[in-house]
Write a structure and sequence with these properties.
The complex is a heterotrimer of chains A (636), B (68) and C (200). Chain A is an all-alpha fold and 636 residues long. Chain A is 63% helix and 1% strand. In chain A, α7 runs antiparallel to α8 and α18 (494-520) packs antiparallel against α19. The radius of gyration of chain A is 25 Å and the shape is globular. By secondary structure, chain B is mainly alpha-helical. Helices cover 69% and strands 0% of the residues of chain B. In chain B, α1 (2-29) runs antiparallel to α2. Chain C has 200 residues and is mainly alpha-helical. Classes of the chains: A mainly alpha (636), B mainly alpha (68), C mainly alpha (200). Chains A and C meet through α7, α8, α9 and α10 of A and α1 and α4 of C.
């Protein structure tokens, strides 16, 4: 029965909810003496009630509703009874490993949606003037590419954190399994709303949704706001869960400085998600209600009555402050887990201790905290208060210090290591090279005098694509390859993995360097057309070809994953010789992960140090032959 | 038991009285012309501290006994 | 790594359920983290108020402001009384105090929505209207959620749920309600008291 899938029930619930919400709004409007059909209010309430309908349909609210009625709500474990095991991935499931895979797969699917949007408008840019799509579609696609990619990245981050963190700290699950499931499922209607927005007029504001443009953009912008709001809610509850789990549920002996380095990155990420996300939600909500109710937060015009009241006018700069207070730290939400993956994987493939563990751990936290003080560097050219420029420039350049610490540590770890180049390691090295491009193109944007010229050019596009690809995308791919045997119990195809690498990473070098180059030659962001006299058409052709190459490499990637998951070589428990606890238990990982709590007895990354042990998997000595928590010198 | 309960109720009453006095205080501080925003903020922080400590039991986050 | 650790399937799945005291402490931390998150949203609204209004404020009904603020304070007192009562197994007092809290919450809503919102400032009246309705509206939404929460807890308590040892539901409801009060502790002066009224 197809109805047994939570996802299907959710979509049906969403449709019913939307119709109900719209009907009720129309009835209320009639009651208030208005015309029944008002496009915006009816659609917005419909979307909101529809999202609740989705959550009810998928069944993620069921236990809470039972609690409200005073009924018992025992925790469910394992796959749903009387259904095939795969169905649990399409419905409400409380196991953090299932939720982690749900997040990851959704993230990869959204990467494809966003990538397709990008390739479409890249085709348009191959030639000057307009060929395939009109300007409004172009703008909508650029905005949708941005926000769907952000959604994809947030899903990917959620996937990594949910799957790995409880395993790494030896917790039986997340602290709040039901909230965990809610966190995933609330993002799905969010993504659906954003995609719906493309079809109901789109939005020509880009993903930033600045008023005053967004205050008068088509209806699509409202769906976009609501979708972002739901995905933001997902981030917030996910980070509540993660911070509680890490604070309270670490296994005995796992002091803060003995946690795997990825956990530090996850904590730093969650601190940002927990707090800053509220501000993008608030800023979008303010525009949403400005459009619905005429509350002029960002409207510089005053009504006559307002003038009588001596009211000050609204101010659009306020929106940018609120918006960037999240949206700048958000890029650290994207890159910190990725940088954590790099630090996590490097020692394994170099067979050497991680260089400067404490410095790396603290640099993640420092990046997160300094990241709160830099938001206005997006506004140097926006007409912001002049006195804010220099302090924000200073704070921005300060971010380079903890980031430099990470680069220094990676170099130190690589130095004289016994490096082996399996696919995950290739992607780690690729990430470092790409992130270096992103890092070096950054300071000119953070410096006011140069930013005034670089602002809104393709230089910026090249810069942040390099940081996103080096800081999240390639590390994420590395992580998927690295933990794939742990998740599925089978090995991926190494040859296809290497092909994926040799297409995507060089393809990306071409793409981002050319973007930066044509930016310096006068190509502006988010513009569908350009003057052929700038001499940048070859550059655009190169970027488009590189973009398609990356797209094709991603198809190879997914093919590899799907085929290997079914027919790949059976994986051993610890194919990489890792010291991390999740590699000391069978692949795929059993339902309840660890048979008994393990104990941390040493430093996490002392590879090749004779006699050192990180975890004792069998502290009680229950079964014979245990106790070997990834000894130091072991080869592969 | 009975004694403890009475004591707990009494704490509630005292906090209420203090909050009330501070609120009335705020109202009168606001009547002074000019330069009172900082004072109002300090009073608000004092009130919120009382609420967090005595009503919301913030200390139960780090105190080790089993709570109630 | 050739040595695979033997895996022993646990005999009882129950051992994966956390003990109540552990779960309670997790719950408290989780709720407080959520408060931290919400605080940023409320601080965002407060910042908008100072950004747009500066050192001025609209001419609001001072008596009404003082009344609704007092009503919310007293409701917080009764909420605290309810929690104290269930912690000492005094169920009648617990249920009575909960109902009084909910009634005071509704009285607060009547004051804000029924009177303040019907005053001489409308939502579309420049930054005064936008911020006033934005801040009180967002807060009122939280009050509504709190009242619903209280009524759910009251209904469950009436049917015999909660005990002196186990009443996380009551505690969560109580600190949620106090949090809503806490937000108003900052919103009240920001809206009614800070800055001066500009007379045209």
């Amino acid at each position: 029965m197809i109805l047994s899938l939570g996802l299907v029930r959710g979509v049906i619930g969403m449709i019913i909810g939307a119709i109900l919400g719209m009907a009720v709004t129309m009835l209320i409007r009639i009651g208030m003496g208005l015309a029944a059909w008002g496009m915006e209010p009816v659609s917005v309430v419909g979307a909101l009630v529809g999202s609740i309908g989705f959550l009810l349909g998928v069944g993620v609210l069921t236990d809470w509703i039972k609690w409200m009625q005073g009924k018992p709500t025992p925790m469910r474990h394992g796959p749903p009874e009387g259904k095939p095991a795969w169905t649990r991935y399409f419905g409400t499931d409380y196991n953090h490993k299932v939720i982690g895979i749900q997040y990851t797969v959704t993230g990869i699917a959204l990467l494809f949606v966003a990538g397709t949007l990008a390739l479409t408008f890249r085709l348009e840019l191959v030639q000057p003037e307009l060929q395939y799509i009109d300007t409004n579609t172009f703008n909508t696609f650029v905005g949708a590419h941005g926000i769907v990619m952000i959604g994809a990245i947030l899903m990917g981050v959620g996937g990594l954190m949910n799957y790995l963190v409880p395993l790494m700290i030896g917790a039986s699950d997340m602290a709040f399994p039901r909230l965990n499931a809610f966190g995933y499922w609330v993002a799905v209607p969010g993504a659906l709303l954003i995609v719906t927005g493309i079809f109901v007029g789109g939005w020509d504001t880009g993903w930033t949704g600045y008023p005053p443009l967004s205050a008068r953009a088509p209806l699509g912008v409202q769906m976009f706001f609501l979708g972002v709001y739901l995905i933001g809610l997902s981030s917030i509850v996910g980070s509540v869960n993660l911070l509680t789990t890490v604070t309270r549920m670490r296994t005995p002996g796992m002091s803060l400085f003995r946690m795997p380095i990825f956990v530090w990155a996850a904590v730093a990420t969650s601190i940002i998600q927990l707090t800053a996300t509220q501000l993008i939600g608030l800023s979008f909500l303010m525009v949403l209600i400005q459009r619905l109710l005429g509350m002029g937060f960002f409207d510089p015009n005053l009504t006559e009555h307002a003038i009588e009241l001596n009211s000050p006018p609204g101010n659009v700069i306020l929106f940018q402050h609120l918006f960037w207070f999240y949206s700048h730290p958000a890029v650290y939400v994207f890159i910190l887990p990725g940088l954590g993956i790099i630090s996590e994987l490097l020692p394994v493939f170099c067979r050497k201790p991680l260089f400067g563990y404490k410095w790396i751990a603290l640099s993640s936290i420092t990046i997160a905290l300094v990241g709160f003080l830099v938001w206005a560097h997006h506004m140097f050219a926006a007409g912001m208060e002049d006195y804010l420029r220099v302090p924000f420039m200073f704070a921005t350049l300060l971010v380079a210090v903890p980031t430099g610490v990470k680069f220094f540590s990676w170099t130190g770890t690589l130095w004289r290591g016994k490096i082996t180049l399996e696919t995950p390691m290739l992607f780690v090295l690729g990430s470092i090279s790409v992130f270096l491009i992103g890092g070096l193109t950054g300071p000119p944007n953070g410096t006011v005098s140069t930013d005034l010229f670089l602002h809104d050019t393709y230089w910026i596009v090249g810069h942040f694509h390099a940081t996103m690809f080096g800081g999240f995308f390639f590390p994420f791919i590395a992580a998927v390859y690295y933990w794939f045997p742990k998740v599925t119990g089978r090995m991926y195809d190494e040859r296809l993995g290497k092909i994926h690498f040799w297409i995507s990473v060089p393809g990306f070098w071409v793409q981002s360097l050319t973007q930066a180059y044509i930016g310096l030659h006068g190509m502006r962001r988010r513009i569908a057309d350009y003057d052929p006299a700038l001499g940048i058409q070859t550059g655009h052709v190169l970027i488009t070809i590189a973009g398609f190459a990356i797209g094709i490499s991603m198809i190879i990637f997914v093919y590899n994953l799907v085929v290997s998951a079914r027919r790949g070589e059976v994986a051993v428990a610890n194919p990489w010789g890792s010291r991390s606890p999740e590699f000391q238990i069978p692949s795929p990982i059993p339902e309840h992960s660890y048979a008994q709590p393990f104990v941390v007895v040493g430093e996490p990354y002392d590879y090749a140090l004779p006699g050192s042990t990180y975890v004792n998997m069998n502290p009680a000595g229950l079964a014979a032959g245990g106790g070997g928590g990834g000894g130091g010198g072991g080869g592969k | 038991m009975e004694e403890k309960k009475k004591a707990a109720y009494r704490v509630g009453v005292i906090v209420l009285v203090v909050l009330f006095v501070l609120t009335i205080g705020e109202y009168f501080v606001a009547q002074i012309p000019g330069g009172v925003i900082s004072v109002l903020f300090i009073i608000a922080i004092a009130k919120s501290w009382a609420i967090m400590k005595y009503f919301m039991h913030i200390t139960s986050l780090w105190s080790e006994e089993g709570g109630h | 790594m050739s040595v695979a650790t033997p895996y022993v399937e646990p005999a009882h799945h129950e051992h994966h359920e956390l003990p109540y005291s552990e779960q309670l402490r997790n719950n408290r931390l989780g709720l407080w983290l959520f408060f931290t998150s919400e605080a940023f949203m409320f601080i965002g609204l407060l910042s908008s108020r100072f950004y747009l209004w500066g050192n001025t404020r609209p001419d609001l009904d001072q008596t009404l402001g003082l009344i609704v603020t007092s009503v919310l304070l007293v409701s917080s007192f009764f909420m605290n009384r309810a929690e104290t009562a269930i912690a000492h197994d005094d169920r009648p007092e617990f249920l009575r105090s909960l109902l009084i809290t909910a009634a005071l919450g509704i009285a607060f809503l009547v004051g804000v929505v029924g009177f303040e919102w019907q005053g001489h400032i409308g939502p579309s009246d420049g930054a005064y209207g936008a911020v006033l309705f934005g801040m009180t509206g967002m807060h009122a939404l939280h009050v509504v959620s709190g009242v619903i929460f209280i009524l759910i807890v009251w209904n469950n308590g009436r049917k015999g749920s909660f005990s002196a040892e186990r009443h996380w539901g009551v505690e969560a409801c109580a600190i949620w309600w106090h949090y809503v009060d806490l937000v108003w502790v900052f919103f009240y002066p920001a809206l009614y008291l800070m800055g001066h009224v500009v007379h045209g």
